[in-house]
Amino acid sequence: MWRDFTCVDDLVEGIRLLIDAVPVRPAPGAGVPEGDSLSKDAPYRIVNIGNSDKVKLLDFVDAIEEVLGKKAVRNYLPMQKGDVPATWADASLLKTLTGYSPKTDIRDGMRRFVAWYRDYYGK
Questions:
Q1: Residue 30: what are its φ and ψ, rounded to 5°?
Q2: What is the pLDDT of residue 25?
Q3: Which UniProt keywords apply (predicted)?
Q4: What is the pLDDT of residue 84?
């Protein structure tokens, strides 16, 4: 199983930068550039914010174990109905619009998340 894990700090930075990338409705008869989700009818677009990289789900669990200093109880199940073996974001439009690409790796992101969680919840 592979997933794209994105650090909250990277999401916030992507959103912050997109605030200045205001969509402009295309001129009548003008097309939308290839790869852009800009609506031809209204000034909006959909932009993926992600690392654009896939991480093994077990590497994610390993990162949690490493940061917490505890082993997880792993209960392996068969593939669940409707699930997919791999999924990750294509954040190329974010890069085109803002010059930014999220890049926090899973281990650093997990360390930062656990530090925040312990600080916030006092644990």
A1: -80, 145
A2: 75
A3: NAD
A4: 94
DSSP state at residue 47? -
Q: Please count the other Cβ atoms lying within 10 Å of the Cβ belonging to residue 10.
A: 20
Three-state DSSP state, 2: strand
- At residue 8, the pLDDT reads 92
SS (H, E, C) 82-101: CCCCECCCCCHHHHHHHCCC
Q: What is the pLDDT of residue 31?
A: 73
All structural domains of the chain? 2-121 (3.40.50.720)
CB atoms within 10 A of CB 6: 23
DSSP H/E element including 17: helix 8-18
Measured between alpha carbons, how far is 11 from 50 in angstroms, rounded to an integer? 7
Task: Provide the pairing of β-strand 55-56 with 2-3.
Answer: antiparallel
Work out the mean pLDDT of the chain and round it to a whole number: 90
